[in-house]
Specification:
By secondary structure, the protein is mostly helical. The protein has helices at about 5-15, 45-135, 140-155. Helix 2 (about 45-135) runs antiparallel to helix 3.
């Protein structure tokens, strides 16, 4: 048998002597895995725990930095999203206003077309009456033509329908 104890015996001996076994030094470790007091620890174990605490602290600081960066990026993305959303709302309101204006213009044009159509029909009726009056001869036809001309003037000035 050699003077060097095996790993299992060294572990059992170190636990029996109150010496804690070595623990992995990488990553984040909870505080409870570190010894509360350094009395009774071998200097190598103290150094190991010190390195493990530094590594754990460094991992925590990296994680904290990542969390802060991601939080900042999320806030910036949220702000960009809200800005974009507000611009879409403004565009939507402008489009709605333009649509309402276009509808008003279309209604006005429709009314103008109807008014033009009714004037055109009245003028056509007057011209037809004028042609009929020209066919007749005599005093009544002249009187009738003058009345038709007066009706035409009234209609062309923007007056309403006249009795025909």
């Amino acid at each position: 048998m050699s003077d060097q104890p095996t790993d299992i015996t060294a572990l059992a001996t170190s636990e029996a002597n109150g010496v804690q076994p070595l623990v992995e030094c990488k990553g984040i470790r909870p505080t409870s895995t570190f010894p509360r007091e350094l009395t009774g620890l071998h200097p190598d174990q103290i150094e190991h725990h010190y390195k493990a605490m530094r590594n754990s602290h460094a991992s925590l600081m990296r994680s904290r930095g990542q969390l802060l960066r991601r939080s900042r990026e999320l806030s910036e993305a949220r702000d960009r999203f809200l800005t974009t959303l507000r611009s879409y709302e403004e565009r939507l309101m402008l489009i709605g206003q333009e649509k309402a204006e276009a509808l008003r213009l279309a209604q006005d044009m429709h009314q103008e077309l109807e008014a033009f159509d009714s004037k055109q029909q009245a003028l056509d009726k007057l011209l037809q009456d004028l042609d009929e009056a020209k066919q007749e001869a005599g005093f009544w036809s002249v009187f009738q033509i003058n009345a038709l001309i007066d009706r035409m003037r009234t209609l062309l000035r923007g007056g309403g329908r006249s009795n025909g």
